[in-house]
Known about the structure:
The protein is an alpha+beta fold and 122 residues long. It has one domain: Heat Shock Protein 90 (2-Layer Sandwich), CATH 3.30.565. It is 39% helix and 25% strand. β1 and β2 form a beta hairpin.
Amino acid sequence: MDEDGKIALYRIAQEALTNIERHAGASRVAVDLRGHRKGATLRITDNGVGLGRLARDPASGGGLGLRNMQERVEQLGGQLRIESAPGGGTTIDATVPLTHMLPPEEENPDAPASARQDIAAQ
């Protein structure tokens, strides 16, 4: 994963876990990061009190932390999805596209110089 993707997912997890600690009243939290064909998804779930209608929509200004998460993932071309029900906990999915999962294209520094030249000549 590239540095921008790592930082964004770290900050999203940090914000989500801080919000859960401060507001959710949860007794259980799960954090899961999985790679897939389209990129990677960070999923954070809790069994807390859930979010109110306005807080679920980061664009409404209902929660500064949620809006920050939304902006971070959008800067990477990703998507933030929030599911929550009063008393039913919350699930946050932050998906980062595959472009942030692949290493940058550069020549292999461990390859012999002749191999690098041959590749470049083709």
